[in-house]
Structure formats: C-alpha cells, structure tokens
Design a protein that fits this description.
Two copies of one chain form a homodimer. Chain A is of the alpha/beta class and 396 residues long. The first copy, chain A, folds into two domains: 145 residues, Aspartate Aminotransferase, domain 1, CATH 3.90.1150.10; 239 residues, Type I PLP-dependent aspartate aminotransferase-like (Major domain) (Aspartate Aminotransferase, domain 2, 3-Layer(aba) Sandwich), CATH 3.40.640.10. Chain A contains 13 helices and 14 strands. In chain A, α7 packs parallel to α8 and α11 packs parallel to α13. The longest helix of chain A has 26 residues. The termini of chain A are far apart. At the A-B interface, α1, α3, α5, α6 and α9 of A face α1, α3, α5, α6 and α9 of B.
Amino acid sequence: MEYKFSDNLASLKPSAIREIFKSLSDPSIISFAAGNPSPLSFPAEDLAAISADIFEKSASTALQYGITEGYPPLRRAVTERLRDKFKIGRDFDTTIITSGGNQGLELACRVLCNPGDVVLCENPSFIGALNAFRAVGAKTVGIPLREDGIDPADLEAALQKHPNTKMIYLIPTFQNPAGTTTSAEKRAAIYEIAKKHSVMILEDNPYGDLRFAGEDILPIKALDDAGIVIYCSSFSKILSSGMRVGFVCAPDPIVQKMAVGKQCEDVHTNQFFQMLCHRFMTERDMDAHIEKIRALYREKCNLMLSCLNQYMPKEVHYTRPEGGLFIWCTLPDGVDMNAFVKKAIEKKVAVVPGTAFNCDTEAPSQSFRLNYSTPSDEDIKAGIRIIGELAAEMIG
Amino acid sequence: MEYKFSDNLASLKPSAIREIFKSLSDPSIISFAAGNPSPLSFPAEDLAAISADIFEKSASTALQYGITEGYPPLRRAVTERLRDKFKIGRDFDTTIITSGGNQGLELACRVLCNPGDVVLCENPSFIGALNAFRAVGAKTVGIPLREDGIDPADLEAALQKHPNTKMIYLIPTFQNPAGTTTSAEKRAAIYEIAKKHSVMILEDNPYGDLRFAGEDILPIKALDDAGIVIYCSSFSKILSSGMRVGFVCAPDPIVQKMAVGKQCEDVHTNQFFQMLCHRFMTERDMDAHIEKIRALYREKCNLMLSCLNQYMPKEVHYTRPEGGLFIWCTLPDGVDMNAFVKKAIEKKVAVVPGTAFNCDTEAPSQSFRLNYSTPSDEDIKAGIRIIGELAAEMIG
C-alpha cells in the first residue's frame, strides 16, 4: 500500500543529527555530536533512595493517572524556584509540567500557529524546536545570531517583513548550538519590540542553571509585565534527561490551552518521576548538586577550549561559552564544511554539521557544533587534535 | 493581552470528564466517572524491586536520553508478545513505544490527516481520541455502535458519503465507553471494506488483556495482510497508567513517520519506565499478573451488574461487558439524561454523560458511562442503589 502523509509531516525528515547518531554505534568513534548531559550529572543515588520511598509510601498515587497540568506539589515547587532563582512569574502566570522541555516548545507553537504562520528564530537554532514548529506547519525564519544575541534592528526588520509572525523563539542563555548568551541590553530591546508588535516570545532556557563563568543575566521572562513571554525549561540537564520532565511558565490562558493540547498528546507526564523531582527539589540540596555539574562542565569546556587553542588553525573561529553544553566552530570561507564533517567521521570523530541548525533547510553553513559534556577528557584531547589537524590540512 | 489561538485548538474545550473530575475533589462523592484502573492492578512490589536493581546496575542508561522509537529490548519484547498473544505483526510491521496509548492515536492522526479530513469513529467513542483527532483539525464522523460493533453496511455508506476519509478509528474489544465487543464476523467484514477503499484502520486495544468472560476474538490487525491497520495499545491497564508507556504496531513507513512526529513532541518515552516494563515482561510472570486483574474486574463487574439488576428500573438498558472497565447505561426516551447526571451529582454519585463521547459534539444522548474498576464494593452497592432510585423517580 502507498501511504500518503499529512502535509505538515510529509516533508519533515528525521534530523541530520539522528543520521549521525547511526554512525555512532561504532564504539571506536569519538563523539562530539551528542546533546546529552554527562551521566555524572544525574544524582542517581539520591534518586534511588527517594524512589524506594515512593514505592513504599505512595505507590498507588505514583503509578496511577495524574492531572494533565502536572503533579500539584511539583508545580508549586517549580513556581517557587523560578521566582526565587530567576525572578520569573507574575500574578497572571501559571506553571504546567511537560514531558521534557521540547514538548513545551511544541505545544506553544501548536496553540498559537496555523500552517503558514511565521516563527522568527535565531539562526542557527535548536533543531528539535525548528522541527516541532515545522510539524505544525509553521514557517521558521532566521535572524542572524551574533556573539551577544540577535540584533534588535534585525528583529524589527523581520517583523516588518513578516506581518504573520506569531512567535519569536529564542534561547538567550548558552544557546544551542552556538553557546552564546544574549546581553541584558539586547534582551530588554527585544522584549520592547515584541511588546510593540504584540508578538509572543517563546523563551527556551534548558541550560540556565549551567553557568560556570561570567555573571548571571535574568531571563527575558523576568521583564514580562505584559504577559507575552512563554518560558520553557526542564530538569533534563540537572536531574535526568531520560525521565522527560520539563515545565512551562506562561500566562494562564496560554497554559490552559497548552493543557488541552497536552491532553491530546500524552494526557500527562510520568507521574512517578514528577513525584521524584518534587521530592529531590524539596528534600535534597538542589543548589549544591547544580554547583557540582557547573564545576564539571567548567573543567570540560576549558579543556576543550585549550585543545582548540592548541590544535585548531587560527583561521577557525570558535565561541567561548560561559555555560551550557556546546562550542560552535566556524571554518574559513573556501573550506567545504560538509566535506570536513565527512572526513572527520572517516577519522573517527563525529561533529554536527551547522546546516542541521539552519532555519532555512536549504541554506549552506561554514560551522559545526562540538559537545563537551559527554566525551571523556582523553577523547576531548585526542578528538580535537584530529579535527584540528584535519582543518589545517583542508585550509592548506 | 488578547491571545489568539490556532484554528485547530481554539475551539477545543477541556473534556466534560475533566469538569466532572473537578467535583470529585469532594471525598464524599461516589465516583463511577473515572477511567482509571484499580490501584490493585499495579504490581508495585515487583516494580519496586526491579527499580532498585535498575538504579544499582543501569542508572546511567535509565536516566539518559533514549531513542525516539523506544528502548530496543522493550520493542522486541512487545513485538514478541503481540505475535504470541494476539497473532499480530508481519514482515512489513514494526513497533514503536509511545508515551501512553493516547500518543499513538494522536500520532497516527497527525501523520495521516490534514485539516478537514474525516476520521470515521464508532459513536459513541473514546473522548481522548476524538479530541486528539480534532486537535489535528480532522473531522470526527460517527457510525452507530451496535452491541456487536458497527454495521459493515453503515461503514460502507459512510465511506461513500465521505470520500476524504483518511482513517477508521475502532475500539473493537471492550469498547470505551460502551463496553461492547465487535464480533469476529464484523471485524472481517470491516477489514475488507477498508481494504477495498484503501483507508487505514486505527485499532485501539487498551483493554484487550482484560477479558473476564466469553471467548477471545483476535484483533483486526491479525487479519492485516495489506498493511492498512495501525494497532495501538499500552501498559496502562496492566502495569501502571501513571507511567505513560504505550506502543504501536504498524507498517514500517507509518512507524517511521510517527517517530518523526514523536521526536517533535517528547523526543522519546520515559527511559527508566521502558526498562522497567521490559524487565517486568521478561523476568516476571506477566500472564499470572494479568489473570489476577481479570479476576478482580470479573468480580467488580458482576457486582455492579447485579446491583443494576436489583435497583435499576427495567426501562433502563445497560451493556453486559465481557472485559474492560465500563458499563454503558441508556435511559428511556423522555428522561432528560443531563438532568439525571446533574441530580446524581447532587446525590453524591458521579457518572459521565454520554454526550462527552459523541462524535458530533452538538448531538444529544440518552446514555451515561459507569466505571467499575475503581470504586469499592461498598460504593458500588450504595451508588448504584442511589442512581437506580433516581432513575425510577425520573421515569415516574
């Protein structure tokens, strides 16, 4: 039988990252391609102890259907933490628990966008979000990402050019894939422009807790007196990525509509792990745990940066992140990025080609993404040396 | 700010069941409104023991990102069980793990239907599926459900009338809400009609393991030599509903496209509980466990039926299920069903009005749904007596 797929999904391909992952089943490959947190970041012993206690005392609740909006004590704990740590959440805002941060992004687009509507995005941007928007039929339009975030003038121009823009999608802190952080000044300017145009901002902050250098900058949501920011984050990078528990803080009418959408997808998020998150947050020292992850990533990022400094030809540009999981490298003009990535795989080092993160899927890229959270120190040293020598060879 | 929602979600209301659930926070109410499995059906001790072992031996894998299609050993175990128990799965079929059965239904519609396309459904049908279809913009068109399933002639007529039908959605075994089972003869006839019209069948079988009377009937998927059946089920009614682990068996191109859709939603299903399911299936006696649930529900269903027999006026018709969770009651013409449900709540008994399950949201209903898996025996006796007396009073 010939299957005919819906317009929204027919053209959507599995992401390039997934294709690269297939080659990673070869254990001799050094992978800088993942977006995974280090397994050392999972507080497995604490989670095991709390799990045993949940099974002993609350198994019936933990294994039964829950509420679509989320386990109420977890919603309250998240609301409090967002207020205390990030100055987020006003009277008109509420919190909903999602099955990972990605579901929050997807639901936001699903409740706001009709097919053909535009979502303005940083270019490059997170492939998972871009595909989620495309799967709703929305059009992803890129705004060039600078070292300190998109330029407000570029945003203003894009809004003029695309009057059917429904949403501006931003990862202001430790951006994926670029590793850059939008300055406080730009955040304020972006917020004012969005407010003027009555366009919603979708702020994605999965790495916000992972600052290991520089000064904290408040999320855009902290400025949100007009109720135009949908803030998404998750526990994936601080407790467990595999459990799929995220959260959204947004104006209540938006959250209510997202709950209707979520009920159509998975009804609610895994109840047991919601209880586990709540108990970890309230019974363990969350801040001390996060401090350990920061120290780990500080060390790994510094190691990768020093290897890049040692082995990469000076013509190759790379970002110096103050947190998060990624470094973004850009090859000089004239070097074929796709050929570079292919040769790197032949030399047993995997990186993600920049084209995977393009808003315009047909556009070229000179860049590739490096992850430092998962490879071992030895692999970082060996792998960066290999791709540094490869770059030198291709630059000639 | 005035929020403008997408066309697909703007008109979608939270389900009537959710509204009823709000009134259930009153602990003095006897609820026959749930769709929950009995907490006694969760093998909590076994799950606790396996969990402890997973934390001890495989925490890094269990807490890390997984594959969108699902944890490979679980996919294999599900594939084998479907083949052995239900005679399902041919060379062209594969299995994907979903976050509950509902996500399977939603993804099937999402990959096949454009806005305006028709999904033919049994009328009444499962509200969660109907809303999932509506959220994609599909139109739900009902075919009257008889005691032994929809009539093939009605299906043929509906397909003639709606040439833009993309999918036929059926719960052939222990239907929700009606509790009825489609006969083997009708299954074969329905399958042939769908094949003739090249229309996909979405077969939903969440209760298939819960037969406590009568003879097993194979799923429609067992007939599927043409690759036109998408089969959805879950562990919600046999291991835990709150963990949100379901599965789909369908032709590989369909599963591949569903994986693309799933990646846009929640990336993958909770990895820890996928491992838990796999280990329970392969290390414990799943069949013996299911036999216990069947015995429990047999007893509860028989109790409710005998109370209905004792207290319900003979003008009230009700189904006699051979499995599943629900009994469907129909009031005689002239009795206002909505008034009945409202008065029942005032008398502290909650049932779900039949209108909630209508494919046409504006259509009336004379019926209501009763659940026997969650209330205690005492509540079943007291509650059925109350609504029996209420019905007698209203019939006059």
